[in-house]
Specification:
Layout lengths: L2 H9 L4 H16 L3 H8 L5 H11 L8 H8 L5 H13 L1 H42 L6 H11 L1 H29 L5 H36 L3 H14 L1 H42 L3 H43 L5 H10 L1
Helix pairs in contact: 2-13, 3-7, 3-13, 4-9, 4-10, 6-7, 7-8, 7-10, 7-13, 9-10, 10-11, 12-13
Length: 345
């Protein structure tokens, strides 16, 4: 194939479909920085296709649906002995027992509030970015509208997130159980081969379902569909545009990698002057100056990580929302399909 043909592809409208969506997402992410607030909390519900790939490649098949709750259960506090000990504590030291109960209830309330805030933030990102894309102008009271949408669609969005988390956990459970049962009966190479086979069966299926849930969330928030219809419509949209969905996921994964690498490089570059100044203060026997530099450095480090993560989550959500709006309004053709059509001609 002539080199000029490939150059023509790069400069033609073959990539304009994705390029326009990504440019729009970048513009919205940069212009409407209040969305970063929602992106900060939406980051905590990371999952979908990226979680599947990461857990599969790292071999982390043991993570539960609610890891923090499972760790709490492992402490034995909900066992018969644990409850008996709590009852004994109330009899022997009621004040301490009451304080411990209050602290536990406060922690539980904070966890519930955090879950609420995460779901509301995810919904608000989809809702507000869809409004911005559709209206093509700045809308007032963005945070208030986003929270209102999050409250309105809280339960269906929570249900969709639970479904995808449960599917991911079930998939890796199905992958790991045969390996656990046969670990002492077959050789290590056979175990590795079995893992690869099961991985290739269940992981693609899980990724497909994660795309369906992603589109279902958009149907609930943007189109107002109910839970069941959103899942059906999400499945139909994915089956019509499965290749576009996969291509978009690969593009965003590559962007994630580049941004993550950029954040790491920025941290490494900024660490050097802070370490140098801390060393100077330490040598000058300035205890306050030394710790001041350490604290400032940690604040800058956290600001870069938190800000970068919030902005990246915002960009990803806006990108998927833009893709959803594009597909349901005008449709699209994947780059691979267009290349094949061009090749046939």
């Amino acid at each position: 194939m002539p080199a000029s043909w490939w150059i023509a592809i790069c400069h033609s409208n073959y990539m304009s479909f994705y390029r326009n969506i990504l440019k729009q997402a970048l513009s919205i992410t940069w212009r409407y920085k209040y969305l970063w607030f929602f992106g900060l909390f939406a980051t905590l519900i990371s999952g979908g296709e990226y979680e599947v790939i990461t857990r599969g490649l790292t071999g982390d098949t043991t993570q539960n649906l609610f890891p923090n709750l499972s760790r709490l259960a492992e402490t034995g506090i909900f066992s018969r002995n644990g409850l008996a000990n709590i009852g004994q504590l109330f009899r022997n030291d009621p004040f301490t027992a009451i304080i411990s109960t209050l602290v536990s209830l406060i922690i539980l309330a904070l966890v519930i509030f955090l879950i609420w805030l995460i779901i509301v933030s995810q919904t608000a990102l989809v809702n507000n970015s869809a409004e911005i894309i559709s209206n093509k102008k700045e809308l007032p009271s963005g945070v208030k509208r986003g929270v209102a949408a999050g409250v309105k669609y809280f339960w269906p969005i929570l249900g969709l997130n639970i479904i995808i988390k449960a599917i991911i956990c079930l998939a890796f459970l199905l992958i790991s159980l045969p390996i656990i049962f046969w670990a002492t009966k077959i050789s290590p190479p056979a175990i590795a081969a079995l893992y690869i086979i099961l991985f290739l069966i269940f992981v693609p299926l899980t990724i497909v379902l994660s795309f369906v849930i992603k589109y279902a969330i958009c149907y609930v928030v943007i189109k107002g569909s109910n839970f069941i219809n959103a899942v059906k419509e999400g499945w139909q949209l994915f089956t019509k545009n499965w290749l576009i969905s996969i291509e978009m996921a690969f593009i965003l994964f590559f962007i994630n990698f580049l941004v993550g690498l950029g954040i790491i490089l920025a941290i490494l570059i900024l660490i050097v002057p802070f370490l140098f100044l801390s060393l100077i203060f330490y040598k000058a026997i300035s205890f306050i100056g030394f710790w001041l530099m350490i604290i400032i450095g940690l604040v800058v480090l956290l600001a870069i990580i938190i800000g970068g993560g919030a902005a990246l989550t915002t960009f990803q959500t806006v990108s998927w929302t833009g893709l959803f709006i594009e597909l349901i309004s005008r449709g699209g053709t994947s780059k691979i399909e267009r290349i094949v059509e061009k090749w046939k001609k």
